[in-house]
């Protein structure tokens, strides 16, 4: 059986200008090779002491991705969570709004009021930002939660909410008792 020329990639160095393998075979070969390489790379990193995000509490993404996503699944069961590397937003709520969730622990400075810093990076995609303010990484105690419209924040690189300016965000504050219950369940497991 002879395949049509359109089923082959072009290859300028061959006499007929076509690759020796058809597109389907070549794609399958590279897919298998990529999966095998990714598996070997993961095993190599694990042998060298690297941990997954869920195991590594020192990882910068642990609080923002792993913990926040588990809380969001509990608090908003109808929401559709996106993959970790989804550009611009983390979930689609039940009403179809795009939400980007951000987390921060309280920062103490010698000359400033204690504060939470949230990196927005001028993200114009989400309709809302869900900001979760934690006391620290070990206790995972949630101090505050805000659901802020995107047009309030998406022109900023970073948003800082300090104890001295927290009253300005009161209109966006949301009840976080369900999130606290979720954190307590995670701690008990």
Short synopsis of the structure:
30% of the residues lie in helices and 24% in strands. It is an alpha+beta fold and 189 residues long. A 5-stranded mixed β-sheet has the order 3-4-5-7-8.
Would you write up a description of this structure?
The chain is an alpha+beta fold and 189 residues long. The chain has 2 domains: 5-47; 60-188, Trna Endonuclease, Chain: A, domain 1, CATH 3.40.1350. The chain is built from 4 helices and 9 strands.
* Structural category: alpha+beta
Q: With helices defined by DSSP (H or I, 4 residues minimum), what is the helix count? A: 4
Task: Indicate the multimeric state.
Answer: single chain
CATH architecture of the largest domain: 3-Layer(aba) Sandwich
Distance, first to last CA: 60 Å
The total beta strand count reads 9
Placed side by side, the strands forming the largest sheet appear as: 3-4-5-7-8
Please give the radius of gyration in angstroms.
23 Å
Described by the principal axes of the CA atoms, the overall outline is elongated
> Any low-confidence stretches, pLDDT <50, length ≥5?
none
* Element-level helix/strand string: EEHHEEEEEEHEH
Strand content: 15-25%
């Amino acid at each position: 059986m002879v395949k049509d020329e359109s089923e082959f990639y072009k290859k300028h160095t061959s006499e007929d200008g076509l690759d020796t393998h058809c597109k389907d075979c070549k794609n399958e070969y590279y897919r298998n090779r990529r999966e095998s390489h990714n598996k070997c790379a993961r095993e190599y990193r694990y042998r060298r002491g690297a941990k997954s995000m869920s195991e590594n509490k020192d990882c910068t993404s642990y609080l923002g991705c792993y913990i926040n996503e588990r809380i969001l699944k509990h608090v908003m069961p109808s929401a559709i969570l996106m993959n970790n590397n989804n550009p611009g937003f983390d979930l689609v709520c039940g009403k179809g709004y795009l939400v980007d969730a951000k987390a921060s622990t309280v920062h103490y400075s010698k000359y400033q009021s204690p504060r939470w810093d949230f990196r927005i990076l001028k993200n114009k995609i989400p309709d809302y930002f869900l900001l979760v303010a934690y006391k620290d990484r070990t206790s995972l105690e949630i101090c505050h939660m805000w659901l802020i419209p995107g047009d309030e924040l998406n022109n900023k690189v970073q948003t800082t909410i300090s104890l001295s300016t927290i009253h300005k965000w009161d209109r966006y504050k949301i009840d976080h008792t369900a999130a606290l219950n979720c954190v307590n369940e995670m701690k008990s497991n």
